[in-house]
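job 3f2a | input accepted
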Amino acid sequence: MTAQSIPLFEMAFTRCTVILILSFVWLKRSRQPIFGTSSVRKLLVLRAFMGYLSLLSFIYCIQRVPLSQAIMLNFTTPIVAAVAARVILHEKLKIAEIGGLACSFFGVLFIFRPVLNIQGSTEAGEANISYVKGSNHLYAVLVGLVSSTVGGVSYCFIRAGAKAADQPLLTVFAFGLFATPAAAICAFIFEGFVLPGFYTLLLMVILGSLAFLAEITVARALQLEKTSKVVNILYLQAASTQLLGMSLSRIVPTFGRLVGCTLILISACCTMYVGPEKEVD
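job 3f2a | predicted structure (281 res):
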């Protein structure tokens, strides 16, 4: 059995729908207020809006630039989140946390550098590409940077909303409530609907359920820990993807990939357990 090719907005709609349903059921079973108190609703609305704007921008970006470049742009989000938390939430950054974020980002650069070089050589060989295409590529990159920036700010609102409501699941439900109809409208306007088969639909539901668990975990972590620590741990998804691919013989274990994974693992450990207490004011 093979999965169908599903439009991105339709995939986003399915994922957001699964997140909405699961978070609603969880809140009802735990007898929690669905919309939270009036004092946190503004934070929840801002979190939902910023989260979907980041998702929308990222989808636009990956449709118009090579996937590896879009992923690289997306991995600037933790850095933006740490800086935004310093400004919005007035969180102090430790020297170890700044170094950890830099080390993790360099690890991502080591992992994706071979792919970027290959794509760069291919694009350089196509010298007859028009200026208009180059302008569109630059525009897509700028949209990708907007996605990273808005995504970083969204993490700040997740932390603020989770702490104010004392229930991190509310931030997940708010995102699903806003993003589900928004993704449906985008799918209807920009893409054609593709009826998924049973196997494809099952995969989409499973991925949506995993996304729900990831959303809850991140929201809970942001409720308990500083933003800079939590977002640095997010770099582990790059390392874990590479290590899993190497173990399944789907990814060639090059020196750059091994160095990148090592840097990310060391950075995550150091951010959690090591580092001086000196802070940057």
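job 3f2a | The beta strands are 93-94, 279-280.
job 3f2a | closed
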